[in-house]
């Protein structure tokens, strides 16, 4: 009970305080328990804090020890729920030499090596004490003692380690008591690193007037979270206040990763800096931090794909969690088709026409089916004499015509034709019946003549086949040729064997004197015949100019003139003129034409035909979206034709790219850039590989990058990339992905997605050019043939690549940016906290994700996004989307 020695008078008791108590405490209760609620009990997690002790939530005896007996005393108050309020007070301010200790019971640290102690207390202002100033203190001390068990409490005072002297931010006076204003102090101290299993705390009073209202001891942890589909477990923070603990996450069920994701747990119990992520494996998609199986009728082929996608037309799934959809009966999909492609069936051939009919042969022709499911590889023609179906003949042909010979005169034959694509054979056409001509009065001698003629012809054909085969070293690709004479014939008719007499390219290196090579292949032009008009660009060796060439007796021509800069070395001169030595060997409408060279005077020059529209990539970028599909295919046809010529000549280009194609005013494309050394010094796109070669990575076939296997087949790969550049109007292949990422993605089987609005037949051809197995890629003559067919039959270009597999569409509907799915520009901008620009984007026509995908930095500036940070945020986000799309696209 308060006595005369006690400085504070008892304040009025709140009605819910049932037991008598010292004055000091009662006032505390006013503020401490306004609603009568207490914190949760021991061991509960408060955010990222885990309590080891909370004196206010201990229901029974705290078990703390105070000595001497007249020092700290516990006030036995209870709250309105009769729960004890463990408060200790001491107030021996009038007496000299106070040393009052209060020891807690043993507190386990539960594995934490850094703990926090939160004290709530009130402290009396010494100035407000009448006569107490001499001895009164306004601080107390806090200590700890570490021990593995509970037997350490009786250790000597001097074995305790001081944590700190605790002073009050606010002390109270008599006046405060009168006003019932409580000045409760909260102080937090931390201790670490702890090395034992637990510890005691001790509070030493040296003559203050204190009420220790609560003591809470806790450690901090980063609580278990799921981030980027990885579970990061509860993690106790490190011993050091600035320590970041690296924690490995484990992928949630049905998710996978190449590299385990990591995150850092800060000393404050916050998760920071997530690195890496898990992806729902094929057949599963992300929903609320889990991976859920794709439903029936949906599939997901790759972990990188964001969502399960509806099965494309004519396909289905039998079970949930499908990674691909199965084709319905009689429908097919090529092995190289992406699983997003519809399954199709060839429409049968309907239009079979009879051509020349003789007594022993009938010629037939037909039209390609309207909607073949892929590129037609060949036709199979089955025929037999009417009513003799058990004995029939099969001819395979790549062309849409054949001649069936060896037939009986005046006999009716039945013909059926079917097409084969990579998906297999389509159905046979209906039966067509044609009759051979009758024999007119033939003598036995006369009947011998055709037999001899046929034998001679067959002999000549076979001889040509063998010679051609030996000379060309090329396989025709029909392995059954030897068993089936008809195939051999077809093989011959299809011209797959290079016949003797085709000119081949001669490497100028084989000339001892390079000057001799130049003059063998290039005409010397008098400098006076050339008038230079303007500089149009810069080449590796000097300026490129446009001008006019007037050779006496010939028409004046516009020309491009490449000059060799002054001060060149002998090697530079040789390399410079080397291009002319190569170019001069070619004569083809789709290869840049060499007019001649100037070597006898300076500057040394190479004069070529002038191409008004310059290089193809720049031209397409300038005229984005301006051409019809037929015009684009026409350009591609020209390039393929030029390349066929080069490959027939045995010349491997190695740097086929839209930047190395020139285009004239009639939109005729011509292959250019025939460097002699072929180390591509002049190509800014060429990068050094690990093997030291300089290679334009994005355009180059994997085998050429990996082991320098440059062949016409690797040129075909590059041609596929050129197709992609052309159809996307000069877009940079693989956008801003790094060369290393491109190599990795291509090695892993990913391919560029279809450009926007790309005819399916063209994209199919691109994918064929990007076959990993170089022997499976089409040859340039086949490419020319396919493009010719497309041009002849423009309706075949109407089918565009299935929208769901197009990059732009994916950007719009299934954008894998971050973890989000953005269905609108607004949603996307909001997600990257750039929502303020939504209106500007919409007003300026960037209202779809398709349109947004084309945004450049210049566009952003024009739109008024002037802050560099915002520009970066938007561009990075777009970039990330594009890269993820490449990663997520078209596995072969
Ligand atoms: O894109 P361009 O205008 O087309 O810029 C380059 C530049 O010279 C450096 O190579 C242009 N160029 C090169 N050869 C010719 C040519 N035969 N006709 C027209 N322009 C050419 C090329």
UniProtKB/TrEMBL annotation:
<dbReference type="InterPro" id="IPR011641">
    <property type="entry name" value="Tyr-kin_ephrin_A/B_rcpt-like"/>
</dbReference>
<dbReference type="InterPro" id="IPR000719">
    <property type="entry name" value="Prot_kinase_dom"/>
</dbReference>
<dbReference type="InterPro" id="IPR050449">
    <property type="entry name" value="Ephrin_rcpt_TKs"/>
</dbReference>
<dbReference type="InterPro" id="IPR001660">
    <property type="entry name" value="SAM"/>
</dbReference>
<keyword id="KW-0829">Tyrosine-protein kinase</keyword>
<feature type="signal peptide">
    <location>
        <begin position="1"/>
        <end position="39"/>
    </location>
</feature>
<dbReference type="InterPro" id="IPR008266">
    <property type="entry name" value="Tyr_kinase_AS"/>
</dbReference>
<feature type="domain" description="SAM">
    <location>
        <begin position="820"/>
        <end position="884"/>
    </location>
</feature>
<keyword id="KW-0325">Glycoprotein</keyword>
<keyword id="KW-0472">Membrane</keyword>
<dbReference type="InterPro" id="IPR013761">
    <property type="entry name" value="SAM/pointed_sf"/>
</dbReference>
<dbReference type="InterPro" id="IPR013783">
    <property type="entry name" value="Ig-like_fold"/>
</dbReference>
<dbReference type="InterPro" id="IPR034277">
    <property type="entry name" value="EphA5_rcpt_lig-bd"/>
</dbReference>
<dbReference type="Pfam" id="PF00536">
    <property type="entry name" value="SAM_1"/>
</dbReference>
<feature type="binding site">
    <location>
        <position position="562"/>
    </location>
    <ligand>
        <name>ATP</name>
    </ligand>
</feature>
<dbReference type="Pfam" id="PF07699">
    <property type="entry name" value="Ephrin_rec_like"/>
</dbReference>
<dbReference type="Pfam" id="PF25599">
    <property type="entry name" value="Ephrin_CRD"/>
</dbReference>
<dbReference type="InterPro" id="IPR008979">
    <property type="entry name" value="Galactose-bd-like_sf"/>
</dbReference>
<dbReference type="InterPro" id="IPR001090">
    <property type="entry name" value="Ephrin_rcpt_lig-bd_dom"/>
</dbReference>
<keyword id="KW-0675">Receptor</keyword>
<dbReference type="Pfam" id="PF01404">
    <property type="entry name" value="Ephrin_lbd"/>
</dbReference>
<keyword id="KW-0812">Transmembrane</keyword>
<feature type="transmembrane region" description="Helical">
    <location>
        <begin position="449"/>
        <end position="472"/>
    </location>
</feature>
<keyword id="KW-0067">ATP-binding</keyword>
<dbReference type="InterPro" id="IPR009030">
    <property type="entry name" value="Growth_fac_rcpt_cys_sf"/>
</dbReference>
<dbReference type="InterPro" id="IPR001245">
    <property type="entry name" value="Ser-Thr/Tyr_kinase_cat_dom"/>
</dbReference>
<feature type="domain" description="Protein kinase">
    <location>
        <begin position="530"/>
        <end position="791"/>
    </location>
</feature>
<dbReference type="InterPro" id="IPR036116">
    <property type="entry name" value="FN3_sf"/>
</dbReference>
<dbReference type="Pfam" id="PF07714">
    <property type="entry name" value="PK_Tyr_Ser-Thr"/>
</dbReference>
<dbReference type="InterPro" id="IPR017441">
    <property type="entry name" value="Protein_kinase_ATP_BS"/>
</dbReference>
<keyword id="KW-0732">Signal</keyword>
<dbReference type="InterPro" id="IPR020635">
    <property type="entry name" value="Tyr_kinase_cat_dom"/>
</dbReference>
<keyword id="KW-0547">Nucleotide-binding</keyword>
<dbReference type="InterPro" id="IPR016257">
    <property type="entry name" value="Tyr_kinase_ephrin_rcpt"/>
</dbReference>
<keyword id="KW-0808">Transferase</keyword>
<keyword id="KW-0677">Repeat</keyword>
<keyword id="KW-0418">Kinase</keyword>
<dbReference type="InterPro" id="IPR011009">
    <property type="entry name" value="Kinase-like_dom_sf"/>
</dbReference>
<keyword id="KW-1133">Transmembrane helix</keyword>
<feature type="domain" description="Fibronectin type-III">
    <location>
        <begin position="345"/>
        <end position="439"/>
    </location>
</feature>
<dbReference type="InterPro" id="IPR003961">
    <property type="entry name" value="FN3_dom"/>
</dbReference>
<dbReference type="InterPro" id="IPR027936">
    <property type="entry name" value="Eph_TM"/>
</dbReference>
């Amino acid at each position: 009970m308060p006595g005369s020695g006690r400085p504070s008078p008892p304040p009025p008791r709140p009605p819910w305080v049932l037991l008598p108590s010292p004055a000091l405490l009662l006032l505390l209760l006013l503020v401490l328990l306004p609603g009568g609620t207490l914190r949760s009990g021991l061991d509960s997690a408060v955010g990222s804090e885990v309590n080891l002790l909370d004196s206010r939530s201990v229901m029974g005896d705290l078990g703390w020890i105070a000595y001497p007996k007249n020092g700290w005393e516990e006030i036995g108050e209870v709250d309105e729920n009769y729960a004890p309020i463990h408060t200790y007070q001491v107030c021996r301010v009038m007496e000299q030499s106070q040393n009052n200790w209060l020891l807690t019971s043993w507190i386990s640290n539960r594995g934490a090596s850094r703990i926090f102690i939160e004290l709530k207390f009130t402290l009396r202002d010494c100035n407000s004490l009448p006569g107490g100033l001499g001895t009164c203190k306004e601080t107390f001390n806090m200590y700890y003692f570490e021990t593995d068990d509970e037997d350490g409490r009786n250790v000597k005072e001097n074995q305790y380690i001081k944590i700190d002297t605790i002073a009050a931010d606010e002390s109270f006076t008599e006046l405060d008591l009168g006003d019932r204003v409580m000045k409760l102090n909260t102080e937090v101290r931390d201790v670490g690193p702890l090395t034992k299993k637990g510890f005691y705390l001790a509070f030493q009073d040296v003559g203050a007037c204190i009420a220790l209202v609560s003591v809470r001891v806790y450690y901090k942890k980063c609580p278990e979270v799921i981030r980027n589909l990885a579970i990061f477990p509860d993690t106790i923070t490190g011993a050091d206040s600035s320590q970041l603990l690296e924690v490995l996450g484990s992928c949630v069920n049905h998710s996978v990763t190449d590299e385990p994701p990591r995150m850092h747990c800060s000393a404050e119990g916050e998760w920071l800096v997530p690195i890496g992520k898990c992806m729902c494996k094929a057949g599963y998609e992300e929903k609320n931090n889990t991976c859920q199986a794709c439903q029936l009728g949906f599939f997901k082929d790759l972990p990188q794909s964001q969502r399960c996608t509806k099965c494309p037309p004519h396909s289905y799934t039998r079970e949930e969690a499908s990674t691909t959809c199965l084709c319905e009966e009689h429908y097919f999909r090529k092995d190289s088709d992406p699983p997003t492609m519809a399954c199709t069936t060839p429409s049968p051939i309907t239009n079979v026409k009879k051509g020349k009919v003789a007594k022993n042969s009938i010629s037939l022709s037909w039209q390609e089916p309207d909607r073949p499911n892929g590129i037609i590889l060949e036709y199979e023609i089955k025929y037999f004499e009417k009513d003799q179906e058990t004995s029939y003949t099969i001819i395979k042909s790549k062309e849409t015509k054949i001649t069936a010979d060896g037939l009986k005169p005046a006999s009716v034959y039945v013909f059926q034709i079917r097409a084969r694509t990579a998906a297999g054979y389509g159905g046979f056409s209906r039966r067509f019946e044609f009759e051979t001509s009758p024999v007119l009065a033939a003598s036995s001698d006369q009947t011998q003549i055709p037999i001899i003629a046929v034998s001679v012809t067959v002999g000549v054909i076979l001889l040509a086949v063998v010679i051609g085969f030996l000379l060309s070293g090329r396989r025709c690709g029909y392995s059954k040729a030897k068993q089936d004479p008809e195939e051999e014939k077809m093989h011959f008719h299809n011209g797959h064997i290079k016949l003797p007499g085709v000119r081949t390219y001669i490497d100028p290196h084989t000339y001892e004197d390079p000057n001799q090579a130049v003059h063998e292949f290039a005409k010397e032009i008098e400098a006076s015949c050339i008038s230079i008009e303007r500089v149009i660009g810069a080449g590796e060796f000097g300026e490129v100019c446009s001008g006019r060439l007037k050779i006496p007796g010939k028409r004046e021509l516009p020309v491009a003139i490449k000059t060799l800069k002054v001060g060149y070395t002998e090697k530079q001169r040789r390399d410079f003129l080397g291009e002319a030595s190569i170019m001069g060997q070619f004569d083809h409408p789709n290869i840049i034409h060499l007019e001649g060279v100037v070597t006898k005077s300076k500057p040394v020059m190479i004069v070529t035909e002038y191409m008004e529209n310059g290089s193809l990539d720049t031209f397409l970028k300038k005229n984005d979206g301006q051409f019809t599909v037929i015009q684009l295919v026409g350009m591609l046809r020209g390039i393929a034709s030029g390349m066929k010529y080069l490959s027939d000549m045995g010349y491997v280009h190695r740097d086929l790219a839209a930047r190395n194609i020139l285009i004239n005013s009639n939109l005729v494309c011509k292959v250019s850039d025939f460097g002699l050394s072929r180390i591509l010094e002049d190509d800014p796109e060429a990068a050094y590989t690990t093997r030291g070669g300089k290679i334009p990575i994005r355009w180059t076939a994997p085998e050429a990058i990996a082991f320098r296997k440059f062949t016409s087949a690797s040129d075909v790969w590059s041609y596929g990339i050129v197709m992609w550049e052309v159809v996307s109007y000069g877009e940079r292949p693989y956008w801003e992905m790094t060369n290393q990422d491109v190599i990795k993605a291509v090695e892993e089987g990913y391919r560029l997605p279809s450009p926007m609005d790309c005819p399916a037949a063209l994209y199919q051809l691109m994918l064929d050019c990007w076959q990993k197995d170089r022997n499976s890629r089409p040859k340039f003559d086949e490419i020319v043939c396919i493009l010719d067919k497309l041009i002849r039959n423009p309706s075949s270009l109407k089918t565009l690549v299935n929208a769901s597999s197009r990059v732009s569409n994916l950007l719009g509907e299934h954008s894998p940016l971050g973890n989000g799915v953005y269905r609108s520009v607004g949603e996307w901008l909001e997600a990257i906290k750039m929502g303020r620009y939504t209106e500007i984007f919409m007003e300026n026509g960037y209202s779809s994700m398709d349109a947004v995908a084309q945004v450049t930095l210049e566009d952003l500036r024009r739109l008024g996004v002037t802050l560099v940070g915002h520009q970066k945020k938007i561009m990075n986000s777009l970039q990330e989307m594009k890269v993820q799309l490449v990663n997520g696209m078209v596995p072969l």
